[in-house]
């Protein structure tokens, strides 16, 4: 199994792998290109975004600047909007449903490291120490609104039509139709409308 296959399947992988580094370098170059495009040049932004992410549906808007790790693990549904200064660290898959709004400064993380220091690193024969990493996907449903400055941690799912309050830190999955906020993010009420 290659390091790429390990990464994609959620197994511990070696981030120093040359294939993975090449994929990251490509993404970083495309990301920089995207962020330099004049804001009004919608055609060029779409062209570069289609090269950068795994898939972007119809009528998707991603405001600049926009930051990614690999890009190719990001899948954005139709009519969704990502506001400026968002960071999607897509070492694992990030799925964003259709008709979803993501506020400015939102961070979505998929990389995981062990909590125990002794399990977080491995040491090579030459004495060099490296971080062990694996991934957990993040799934965001249809019709979701994520307020500005929210942080979504690895492995969470945000159900359809949920609302995440600004500044929330989402450590656990949030069910469909919920209004949730806080650090850690907790459900405050449930809505039946739109579901």
Please tally the helical runs, counting DSSP H or I stretches of 4 or more residues: 4
Strand order of the largest sheet: 2-5-8-15-18-20-21
Q: What share of the residues does DSSP label as strand, in percent?
A: 25-35%
Number of strands: 21
Integer count of domains? 1
GO molecular function, one term: acyltransferase activity
Organism: Blautia caccae
Family: Belongs to the transferase hexapeptide repeat family.
Protein name: Sugar O-acetyltransferase
List its salient traits.
195 residues; alpha/beta; UDP N-Acetylglucosamine Acyltransferase, domain 1; seven-stranded mixed β-sheet; five-stranded parallel β-sheet; 4 helices; 29% strand; globular; acyltransferase activity; repeat
Can you offer a commentary on this structure?
With 195 residues, the chain is of the alpha/beta class. The protein has a single domain, classed as UDP N-Acetylglucosamine Acyltransferase, domain 1, CATH 2.160.10.10. It is built from four helices and 21 strands. Strands 2-5-8-15-18-20-21 form a seven-stranded mixed β-sheet, with no helix packed on it. A hairpin with a 4-residue loop joins β20 and β21. α2 runs antiparallel to α3. The longest helix has 19 residues. The protein is globular and about 55 Å long. The N and C termini lie far apart (41 Å). The model has no long low-confidence stretch (mean pLDDT 94).
